C-alpha cells in the first residue's frame, strides 16, 4: 500500500511546479513571435506634418516656439502646406499627418499652433480669424536658425496656409492623419459634420486623432471612422497588458489606431509579430514612434531605424521623410 501511494505523493508534492511550467509554456507559445507568421517587407512611413523643418527636441515644452530654433534648412518646405505634403509623398510617405484649426467662418485651416505669433506675421488666436484672413499671412515669417539674425523663409510663406478642403482635393486618394489640436468637443462635432459629407471610400483613407473630448464626439457621429486619443489608447492597451497574454483582444483594440513608443513596445504581449498579427486581424493600425513618445519624436536618422523590429509591418513615425523614405524604399 505504501509503495502504491509514493508516486501519488510525489505528484502532489510537485504539482505547483508543473502548473507553473504549464502556465509558462502556454504564455510563451501564445505570445512568442517565433510562432507567429513571420513578417516580410518594409515598414510603412508616416510623415509628420509633411516635409517639415526640424529642431532640437531637448528641453522643449508645450510653450516652446520651435520656429525660433530650427536647424539650418536642408530643404525649402514648410510644414502643413500642400507643397510639403506632396514632397513627403514623393519621398515615400504612405501617410501624411496634418494639423487642423477651426476658423471663425466655420472652415478648417491647416496650421499647427493655437496662436499666430510664433510662426507668422500675425497675432492672436488662430480660431478667431476667418480662413481668408489666415490665408493672407506669411506662415514662414518667424522661422530662424541663428537666433533671429536671418529669417530664411520670410516672404516665402504668404498665402501658403491651406484649408482642409484644399488638401483633400489635392490628394483625393492618399492616406491622411488629421490632428485635432484642442480638447473642444464642438470641434469634434464640426469636423465630423464636415467629414460626413465625404464618400465612404474616402473616409476609409482618413484617420483622426487628438483630444479625448473632440474625438469622443466625432466618433459618436462617425462610428465607422478610425480614431485615436489618449482615452482610446488607454482603453485598449491597459486591458491588453493585463490579459493579452491569453490571446484575448479587448473590444477597444478593434478598428482603431495605436501610437506605440518603441521604449514601451517590448512590454506588449506578443511584440512584435504576434501583437501585429492580432491588431491587423482586428483592422487596427499600429504606428511606432520613437523613445517614450513625447513631443512627436520620430525615426529621423538611419541610426534610429535600428530600433525598428525586423519585418515590422506597421507605420513608423518620422519627422524627416526626406532622409528615411529613400533608405526604406531602397531595401
UniProtKB/TrEMBL annotation:
Pfam families: GDPD (PF03009). Residues 43-331 form the GP-PDE domain. One of its GO terms (molecular function) is phosphoric diester hydrolase activity. InterPro entries: GP_PDE_dom, PLC-like_Pdiesterase_TIM-brl. GO terms for biological process: lipid metabolic process. SUPFAM superfamilies: PLC-like phosphodiesterases. CDD domains: GDPD_GDE4_like_1. This is Glycerophosphodiester phosphodiesterase.
Amino acid at each position: 500500500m505504501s509503495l502504491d501511494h509514493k508516486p501519488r505523493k510525489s505528484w502532489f508534492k510537485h504539482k505547483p511546479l508543473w502548473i507553473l511550467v504549464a502556465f509558462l509554456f502556454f504564455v510563451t507559445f501564445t505570445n512568442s513571435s517565433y510562432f507567429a507568421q513571420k513578417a516580410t517587407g518594409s515598414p510603412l512611413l508616416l510623415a509628420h506634418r509633411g516635409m517639415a523643418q526640424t529642431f532640437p527636441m531637448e528641453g522643449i515644452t508645450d510653450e516652446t516656439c520651435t520656429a525660433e530654433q530650427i536647424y539650418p534648412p536642408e530643404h525649402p518646405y514648410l510644414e502643413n502646406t500642400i507643397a510639403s505634403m506632396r514632397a513627403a509623398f514623393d519621398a515615400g510617405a504612405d501617410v501624411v499627418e496634418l494639423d487642423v484649426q477651426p476658423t471663425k467662418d466655420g472652415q478648417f485651416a491647416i496650421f499647427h499652433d493655437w496662436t499666430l505669433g510664433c510662426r507668422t506675421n500675425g497675432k492672436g488666436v488662430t480660431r478667431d480669424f476667418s480662413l481668408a484672413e489666415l490665408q493672407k499671412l506669411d506662415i514662414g515669417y518667424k522661422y530662424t536658425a541663428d537666433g533671429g539674425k536671418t529669417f530664411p523663409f520670410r516672404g516665402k510663406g504668404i498665402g501658403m496656409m491651406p484649408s482642409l478642403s484644399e488638401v483633400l482635393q489635392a490628394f483625393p486618394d492618399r492616406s491622411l492623419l488629421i490632428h485635432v489640436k484642442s480638447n473642444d468637443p464642438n470641434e469634434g462635432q464640426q469636423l465630423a459634420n464636415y467629414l460626413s459629407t465625404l464618400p465612404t471610400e474616402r473616409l476609409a483613407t482618413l484617420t483622426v486623432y487628438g483630444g479625448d473630448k473632440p474625438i469622443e464626439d466625432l466618433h459618436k457621429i462617425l462610428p465607422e471612422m478610425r480614431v485615436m486619443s489618449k482615452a482610446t489608447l488607454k482603453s485598449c492597451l491597459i486591458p491588453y497588458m493585463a490579459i493579452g497574454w491569453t490571446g484575448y483582444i479587448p473590444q477597444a483594440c478593434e478598428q482603431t489606431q495605436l501610437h506605440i513608443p518603441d521604449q514601451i513596445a517590448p512590454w506588449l504581449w506578443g511584440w512584435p509579430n504576434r501583437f501585429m498579427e492580432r491588431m491587423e486581424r482586428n483592422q487596427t493600425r499600429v504606428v511606432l514612434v520613437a523613445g517614450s513618445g513625447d513631443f512627436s519624436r520620430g525615426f529621423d536618422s538611419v541610426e534610429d531605424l535600428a530600433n525598428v523590429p525586423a519585418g515590422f509591418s506597421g507605420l513608423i513615425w518620422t519627422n524627416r521623410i526626406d532622409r528615411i523614405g529613400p533608405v526604406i524604399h531602397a531595401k
